[in-house]
Amino acid sequence: MNSMSKSEVTPLKFESIRYDDVNDRVYVIDQTQLPHQFVERELHDLDGTCEAISAMRVRGAPLIGVTAAFGVYLALRNPAMASRTTLDEAVERLAATRPTAINLQWALNKMVEELAGSGDDELGPNALAIALRLHAEDIAACARLGDYGATLLQSLWVEKCRAAQQAGEAEPGQLNVLTHCNAGSLATVDWGTALAVIYKAQEQGLPIHVWVDETRPRNQGASLTAWELARRGVKHTLIVDNAGGHLMQLGLVDCCIVGSDRTTRRGDVCNKIGTYLKALAARDNGVPFYVALPVSTIDFSLLDGMSEIPIEERASDEVTHMTGRDAEGVERTIRLTPENTPVSNFGFDVTPANLVSALITEYGVIEANEEALAELRLKLSE
Ligand code: MRU
What we know:
It contains 12 helices and 17 strands.
């Protein structure tokens, strides 16, 4: 992955991954450079795609899935290399890049199933067609779930205004939503999941304010969510990860909305480490806890998220060190801890279904339980 275009100025409209059909090129935003620089990099081949996912240049469950689909295309696009063996090797290598987000496996399964009938000479063009379709479907799904979620926020806002009126208080100034990690347009092709709900609600005129968890250790909230909310003009405040419970006790959080990397068939939700603690605090304070997800994030083969979802464990230097820019704009990595401090670094945790108020999907808002998910599964099979 070596060609890149750098810019301090972000284009007004971008997709986290895009295909240039004139030049047959695939580009991703290098998210390790945000919020300081908007850098697009070309994915040249399978190696570059695997590196981009493993190094988290692209991250976020739906985006990882779509990127993997393009990775399969890149492995097959040279007709001299296109074969079943190349396909199988590409799928195996891409599947090993990150373990938790099911969208990766979901997209690879689609590629394998849909390429089953293709001859070697058709593998490349057909892989591209499927990747482009998944790309378009991801945008449409996120936009639709954003609409459903915005309706939910409308009701919360009406309820908040009514409660204030009944208590003889002034009309509330804003609806406060807390989010964790980055479940925004950068985690998908466009729109996002949790943030799609916020963008759509803001478009409808709701006075939204977002509490942004910084999301240690990689700080996707501080570096990515804060960046994209600012770009879209959404009012927001960055908080340390431990602040959410306190804000809920003060009545300063009207709801939480997060994304999901994998959702089981009974509604357990696996998301960035720390999500579970927010759900516990939300339950204790009567704050609704919503999870926004495209159905590509549901793993119907699993029931119990706590025992069945593989949780990624990441390098210790993500915890012991931090990277940022100094006053001169030079990137620096500094150590926070004594040398050789033992570290545990689980990337995700599981929020049990009973703590989830509702799942916001592109097919509507449903309860987080086995019956509701079985009904959704039936709808998907029709
Ligand atoms: O490790 P990351 O940055 O890939 O984790 C991303 C998240 O946890 C998101 O909340 C999740 O993928 C849902 S995003 C639509």
